[in-house]
Specification:
Elements: E1 6-9, E2 24-31, H1 36-43, H2 48-55, H3 60-78, E3 90-92, E4 98-100, E5 110-116, E6 119-125, E7 130-136, H4 144-150, H5 153-161, H6 167-184, E8 196-198, E9 208-211, E10 221-225, E11 232-239, E12 244-251
Helix pairs in contact: 1-3, 2-3
Length: 256
């Protein structure tokens, strides 16, 4: 998609600063490698269990990126709720998908998040399921052998038809779109990846084309390609379109 990312100073955004209508969807992009001082400020927003999780990371870079990812998530969600970032409470479904506790905004917001190679995406909506995914495009991973393990028959055939020079792009188009859908329905990798089909070719419109278990399912969703960087593929899927989409790029002011 061609919409412009609006740069927004995230730490300076007050609680409940943003209005989000029922037919609006907001996407945020953020680096998970902010300055050390920003990491310290984000760390203050985390819950005790999140602090414990961060300490399990052996490498400091992984630990800092976890802190940044969770702190940014809390800061973003608080911008739509009358709750401070450290007052938010997360719960998880049986497949590990996070959601806000019903008494801490869970009845008001739906969200999804994804990160890859130091970059994170977040999507926020009201009253509709959303899913987002970002993938760092590694050419050595984008093989037909991998595709044949995870993609549907239609996707594999589409991938084979793409010129070799565009096959890595097509592979990660497919991968990010499939991940976005299974995140939206809240089932993660427990859902069979070959049980549904998305568009693959870089020249075609991103779309959920078919769900084997339900012929009417694909019509309930709209998919978007997000332009994040020339090394990432990213996809967003939204239930019950049409919606108005806004894009925000989080910035940090170390002195703020």
């Amino acid at each position: 998609m061609r919409e412009t990312w609006k740069t927004t100073e995230l730490l300076g955004v007050p609680v409940a600063a943003y209005e989000l209508g029922e037919n609006e969807v907001h996407v945020w992009k953020a680096s998970l490698d902010p300055p050390a001082g920003i990491i310290e400020r984000l760390n203050l927003l985390l819950s005790e269990d999140e602090h414990q999780r961060s300490e399990r990371f052996y490498h400091a870079t992984d630990r800092h990126q976890f802190v940044a990812g969770r702190g940014i998530l809390r800061r973003i969600l608080s911008a739509y709720l009358e709750l401070a970032p450290d007052e938010l409470k997360f719960e998880y479904n049986q497949y590990g998908k996070p959601f806000l506790s019903p008494d801490r905004g869970g009845s008001k917001l739906d969200f999804s998040l994804s990160h890859s190679n130091g970059m994170a995406l977040y999507v926020v909506a009201r009253g509709r399921r959303v899913g987002i995914d970002i993938e760092f495009a590694q050419e050595d991973f984008a093989t037909l052998e991998i595709a044949e393990r995870f993609f549907s028959k239609e996707e594999i055939e589409s991938l084979k038809a793409v010129p070799i020079t565009r096959r890595t792009d097509a592979f990660f188009n497919c991968w990010s779109r499939k991940e976005a859908y299974i995140k939206a329905i809240g089932m993660g990798v427990s859902y069979p990846l070959d049980g549904f089909t998305v568009s693959v070719d870089p020249g075609t419109t991103p779309a959920l084309l078919r769900v084997a278990s339900d012929a009417s399912e694909a019509a309930r969703w709209k998919m978007y390609e997000l332009e994040v960087s020339n090394r990432h593929a990213a996809a967003l899927i939204v239930e019950n379109p049409p919606v108005s989409l806004s894009l925000f790029q989080a910035s940090f002011n170390p002195g703020g």
